[in-house]
């Protein structure tokens, strides 16, 4: 069996202009980044506004495990399968972050015969969008410190600066730093912090903005600090908006690439779902809906994080109404949730499967709470047995969820035809009655408790003294009507990554709450989740290299 990278290298890509042409996109509508990548122009995006929308299909998954689930692989393969059936589909995905690429899991462009290409470009610098976000974020940070150095006319309290610097890399030593050391000319000494670029509010703004005007309005609202009177100081107050927008003027345009089977893919933006809202850009999703009869998009990590935020943040902000959801699982991952060690997952174990399937069941129930029809798919592995697959099939169908086996890793679009047909049948026979989990009028505390109890299964929510005070302050400042963006570990429904399966009645601890006023949501940090990850003992970077012909190795 060929490896992912061998398959990607053997791919015969079409010039991106040809891929675009099949969607009716002309040469003048593209801004090329080489032969196989392009951005859609502002003029073309505007021309799409009057077109009707296609169907919106969300791909999500159970909680991630070391066994792997294959959510992106399924999304890509489903798009390819639609093409095999003669249906016009566009896949809308996030851009991979360099953090996990060099840290834990390597590349994030799908796998096997269901990949997005050019794989190496996508996983590394791509079209520079993340660098633009990083630069805009750090420009704002520099302007804050310069303003203080030059007299501090806005009376910024240096003990209440909330804006953090960022970089797109896992670097734990930058979580807490001291800046301004040296002479008086080197600035004011203060504590500072870094987050990973995908956790920057600017990344969230990029992904939620409708256009450049909206982007600038959102940038203006970013709260960077509080003054000595306790009043917010914004990026607009610092006159930072124009320069930040200039850095983001190209990054705000969606990127067009292709799958191995030349299905069009819009890849744009990349907030993490465990520490941000975890969805690709509104602009890319909206364009895909206008360009095709079916838009297939995904949200990060498990449905408790990515899908919840897709529905309650992205759909709320953009007015999207999803037509169906595909929930990805694997037999191996379900057995892992049932207590089987990673080394033993290949062996048939129906008892562990019956225990671990509770995790899948909770995610099914959660998706149904949003009124969206659900199709469960098993991403097939060679070690799956007929008895295990049949058990999962019966389990899903007994709970009013359609079921399909996916073999897209091995067979590409051909291996996703059963899934594609099941999705098409669901779209035809089951109407979506999409609804949000909570109303804007609830207090921030009530929204947090709602997500914790309804989606995670918590019995109670504990707010630290600091978090309670922050909630009170944000409500007083008028931010109470905003949705909440829960930051939680992705591996468990709870805030304890070791509680697998379907934990119930547990306490969820909210330790910190802060405002992302430009993005339009309030972030609640739970447990010990970090907004700047660290590298593992054996980083994926150890395996990555480039040969004398310029070919990158080790990205998978």
Describe this structure in words.
- This protein is of the alpha/beta class and 556 residues long.
- Strands 1, 2, 3, 4, 5, 6, 14, 15, 16, 17, 18 and 19 form a twelve-stranded mixed β-sheet that branches. Strands 20-22-23-21 form a four-stranded mixed β-sheet.
- It starts with a helix and ends with a strand.
- The mean pLDDT is 96.
Instruction: Count the E strands.
Output: 25
Distance, first to last CA: 15 Å
Provide a count of the helices.
Answer: 19
Shape: globular
- State the helicity in percent bands: 25-40%
Structural class, from helix and strand content? alpha/beta
- Per DSSP, what share of the residues sits in E-state strands of 2 or more residues? 15-25%
What is the makeup of the main sheet? 12 strands, mixed
Q: What's the assembly state of these chains?
A: single chain
Average pLDDT works out at 96
Low-confidence stretches: none
Integer-rounded radius of gyration: 23 Å
Highlighted features:
globular; 19 helices; four-stranded mixed sheet; 25 strands; twelve-stranded mixed sheet; 20% strand; single chain; 556 residues; alpha/beta
Question: Which helices and strands, and how do they pair?
Answer:
Blueprint: H1 4-10, H2 16-21, E1 30-32, E2 38-40, H3 42-47, E3 55-61, H4 71-84, E4 89-93, H5 98-102, E5 110-111, E6 114-117, H6 119-123, H7 129-149, E7 156-161, E8 165-167, E9 177-179, E10 190-192, E11 194-196, H8 201-208, H9 212-221, E12 223-227, E13 232-234, H10 241-248, E14 255-259, E15 264-267, H11 282-291, E16 294-298, H12 303-318, E17 324-329, H13 331-337, H14 350-369, E18 374-379, H15 386-397, E19 402-406, H16 408-411, H17 417-429, H18 444-456, E20 460-463, H19 465-476, E21 484-487, E22 507-516, E23 521-526, E24 545-546, E25 552-553
Parallel strand pairs: 3-16, 3-17, 4-15, 4-16, 8-11, 17-18, 18-19, 20-22, 21-23
Antiparallel strand pairs: 1-2, 2-14, 5-6, 6-14, 7-12, 9-10, 12-13, 14-15, 22-23, 24-25
């Amino acid at each position: 069996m060929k490896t992912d990278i061998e398959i990607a290298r053997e791919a015969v890509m079409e010039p991106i202009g040809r891929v675009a042409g099949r969607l009716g996109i002309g040469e003048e509508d593209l801004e090329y980044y080489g032969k196989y990548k392009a951005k859609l122009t502002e003029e073309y995006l505007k021309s799409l506004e009057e077109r009707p929308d296609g169907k919106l299909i969300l791909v999500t998954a159970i909680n991630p495990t070391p066994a792997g689930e294959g959510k992106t692989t399924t999304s890509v393969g489903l798009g390819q399968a639609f093409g095999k059936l003669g249906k016009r589909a566009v896949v809308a995905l996030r851009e991979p972050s360099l953090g996990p690429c060099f840290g834990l899991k390597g590349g994030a462009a799908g796998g096997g015969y269901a990949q997005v290409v050019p794989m190496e470009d996508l996983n590394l610098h791509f079209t520079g969008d993340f660098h633009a976000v990083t630069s805009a974020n750090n420009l704002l940070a520099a302007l804050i410190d310069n303003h203080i150095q030059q007299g501090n006319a806005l009376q910024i309290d240096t003990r209440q600066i909330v804006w953090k610097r960022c970089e797109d890399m896992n670097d734990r030593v930058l979580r807490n730093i001291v800046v301004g050391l040296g002479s008086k000319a080197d600035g004011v000494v203060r504590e500072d912090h870094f987050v990973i670029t995908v956790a920057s509010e600017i990344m969230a703004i990029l992904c939620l903005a409708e256009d450049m005007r909206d982007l600038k309005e959102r940038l203006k609202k970013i709260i960077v600090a509080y003054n000595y009177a306790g009043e917010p100081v914004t990026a607009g107050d610092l006159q930072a908006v124009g320069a930040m927008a200039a850095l983001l003027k190209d990054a705000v345009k969606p990127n067009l690439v292709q799958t191995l089977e030349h299905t069009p893919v819009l890849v744009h933006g990349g907030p993490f779902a465990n520490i941000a809202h975890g969805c690709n850009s509104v602009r890319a999703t909206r364009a895909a809906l206008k360009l095709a009869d079916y838009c297939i998009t995904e949200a990060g990590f498990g449905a408790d994080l990515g899908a919840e935020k897709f529905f309650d943040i992205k759909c709320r902000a953009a007015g999207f109404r999803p037509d169906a959801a595909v929930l990805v699982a694997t037999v191996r991952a379900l057995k892992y949730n049932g207590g089987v060690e990673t080394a033993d997952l290949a062996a048939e174990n129906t008892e562990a499967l019956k225990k671990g399937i509770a995790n899948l069941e909770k995610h099914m129930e959660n998706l149904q709470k949003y009124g969206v029809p659900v199709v469960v798919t098993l991403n097939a592995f060679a070690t799956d047995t007929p008895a295990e697959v049949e058990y999962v099939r019966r389990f899903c169908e007994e709970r009013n969820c359609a079921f399909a086996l996916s073999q897209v890793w091995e067979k590409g679009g051909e291996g996703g035809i059963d899934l594609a047909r099941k999705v098409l049948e669901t779209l035809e026979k089951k109407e979506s009655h999409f609804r949000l989990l909570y109303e804007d009028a609830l207090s921030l505390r009530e929204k947090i408790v709602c997500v914790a109890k309804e989606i995670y299964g918590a019995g109670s929510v504990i707010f630290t003294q600091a978090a309670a005070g922050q909630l009170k302050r944000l409500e007083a400042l008028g931010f109470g009507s905003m949705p909440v963006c829960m930051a939680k570990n992705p591996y468990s429904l709870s805030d304890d990554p070791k509680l697998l399966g379907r934990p119930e009645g547990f306490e969820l601890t909210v330790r910190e709450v802060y405002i992302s006023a430009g993005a339009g949501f309030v972030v609640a940090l739970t447990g010990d989740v970090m907004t700047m990850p660290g590298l593992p003992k054996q980083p994926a970077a150890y395996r990555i290299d480039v040969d004398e012909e310029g070919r990158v190795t080790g990205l998978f």
